[in-house]
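pipeline/complex-builder :: batch 7 item 3
reading input block
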Amino acid sequence: MSMAVVAVVGAGSWGTAASAMLSENAAVRLWARRPELATELRATGRNVAYTGELMISPAVEVIDDLSDAVEDADFVVIAVPSHGLRGVLAQVADILAERTIVVSLTKGLEQRSLLRMTEVIEQVAPKQRRAAFTGPNLVHELIERLPAASVAVSEDVATATAVQSLFGNEFLRVYTNTDVIGAEIAGALKNVIAIGMGMVDGLGFGVNAKSALLTRGLAELTRLGVALGGQASTFAGLAGLGDLVATCTSAHSRNRAFGERLVGGRSVPDIVSSTTTVAEGVRTSSAAVALAAREGVDMPIVKVVAGVIAGELTARDGTRELMRREAGDEVAGVVGRSGTF
Amino acid sequence: MSMAVVAVVGAGSWGTAASAMLSENAAVRLWARRPELATELRATGRNVAYTGELMISPAVEVIDDLSDAVEDADFVVIAVPSHGLRGVLAQVADILAERTIVVSLTKGLEQRSLLRMTEVIEQVAPKQRRAAFTGPNLVHELIERLPAASVAVSEDVATATAVQSLFGNEFLRVYTNTDVIGAEIAGALKNVIAIGMGMVDGLGFGVNAKSALLTRGLAELTRLGVALGGQASTFAGLAGLGDLVATCTSAHSRNRAFGERLVGGRSVPDIVSSTTTVAEGVRTSSAAVALAAREGVDMPIVKVVAGVIAGELTARDGTRELMRREAGDEVAGVVGRSGTF
């Protein structure tokens, strides 16, 4: 049996790391949008700005023409930011093979449409099968080959299993799940909770406060996911709880770090301009608020984070607001269900 | 209205910190078993070995006679290790006022009977009302008055509300819950998962592996709790997820630190003899395995941790075993439910 051909679309940290990992199981083409980055990757085998000292195997073909990269590929693995996914895929949707499985590594919601990433993929490339790959997978740890577990998610079991086989290796255990709604909502919105967690860190609060916020945050995400047709068990699993814990406890999470900087009093544009990559949660926060409003779901934490990002309240006031809300629930005397949010 | 009279039984870290906190809302008597500790507390206002520089208000009456401490108290708050609770309470059960509410701060299971702490309290003092107080409450953060949230748990709503009022203050938000089974099983067994988490830390694995283990660990605890009659929502709340996250991420958790030392190759008796207090999870692990066997619930993580503590396998082999089990689930091809454990 010949090796599967995989096109990885996007040479940021996740895309570059995924190329290195997948090159052990598959023939990999890595698309870099900027020709100078493609040149650097080919010449040095490294992508210093995104993955530091990680060596990409010479077997990985680095390509700066998107059509060449995806042509006749068995898998197209997309690792571009959420706002770029539609445009990038639209450029090549017509030339994708029918058997191609399009896999999203991107966690986010499209801003105006409020669509999940596989929904955008379905609109742009309706003939192909699609999946999401998610879970607690901090890239710098995957690069170090530290043990991890992730989830291949598709409504179609055979597609999920194909993605599971593609990504699985001795240090990365891959499970399957058919609840695409739950997994993608969890993956997108956990970045917003992580920003809130960073705000709590920035104010010097401790593990007790963060654990309470994480607990209430997951309850909020679960409420929205279930309202949209997802399953609560997905939120209790690797794509939900697992990913949320990883993002919220990692010292390397861009979203958590963003929240921490917000408390320092810096403006959102100022923070954004000082970093190479925009924390996905920044974009997701307003989309999440719109989605919650559309579905009639109460999401106080997401709302406060979005308000701070929109400049409607300061990070300090926002964090205090979160603590006050907690008191509110208590005063309301909700017995029995309390402790859950 | 006169102030409630509270006897805090046990002057370890939690008991001492609780006395300091409660002295803002109530007249507190703190029982110290060792007369020399009582003398130190009275003379210096501190309990250096357990709570460092924390000053205990002179209004707290430090008593070394247990009967004097609990006599006619409105609340008896028990903060002794799980193996000591029955014996201590039995000494004074006959003299407790009927109106006394006995509150357990202790997280653990009685070794042979496999009873939860409030079940032991019920056997020893059946006439009094009882409650548990639990959640993500790392003592050193409560001492610093960092914001936190906890849960007052009793089958009887009025009792839970009374405990909520007793403990609640401007920095500690207290919720109520009537699911005593779920809250106590979660509180006891999270210490075992925390030991497993420490083993993973000791082997130098990262956040991805820990997040996966925490997710699977909570699923294990939930399965047992539900089998015993508890509610899954309690495990998703502060007493479950909240407490587990706090214990597993804290640098100060005795249970997590114990697991880390196990990987260093030190024997259990050696580690135990080098610390002032025994990590509760050490005792709970074997009781948890017995309880899981009795209820026919599969608890692979708890089983491995108990096996390492019992000296049946090394911490290194045990941690590898946990990773292998994960592969096992994958090979079994459990689609849909995977990601949950």
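note: The radius of gyration of chain A is 20 Å.
queue -> next item
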